[in-house]
Amino acid sequence: MLGLFIPPGVAHGFLTLTDDANVLYQIDRIYKPGFDAGVRWNDPAFAFVWPAEPLVIAPRDATYPDFMC
User: Fold this and answer.
1) Which residue, 28, 35, 49, 65, has fewest beta-carbon neighbours within 10 Å?
2) Cα angle 49, 51, 53; round to 5
3) What is the C-alpha separation between 12 and 28, in angstroms, rounded?
4) What residues contact residue 52 under an 8 Å CB cut-off, 6+ apart?
């Protein structure tokens, strides 16, 4: 098992490339609905080149608005 530290406030996303992958994560505070924020995985402002499109994605994560500078 591998771990990766992502500091609070840093955007992050995960895309598994195998059918049997597990991703576990821990956040730094108790989750409170309405206080979350994010950027869409395929927002053209960032021009990320992903190796594949997600097969499963939470509706919230798929519908974040375009990033505004």
Assistant:
1) 49
2) 95
3) 14
4) 15, 17
> What does each of the 69 residues of the chain score in pLDDT, given as a tens digit?
778 888 888 888 889 999 898 888 888 888 888 888 889 999 999 999 999 999 889 898 999 999 887
CA–CA distance from 46 to each of 37, 40, 50, 54, 69 (Å)? Answer: 16, 10, 11, 17, 11
- Please say whether the beta carbons of 61 and 38 come within 8 A: yes
In the block, tokens 């021009």 appear at: 47
How many CA atoms are closer than 13 Å to the CA of 10, on its beta-carbon side? 8
H-assigned helices in 1-69: 59-62
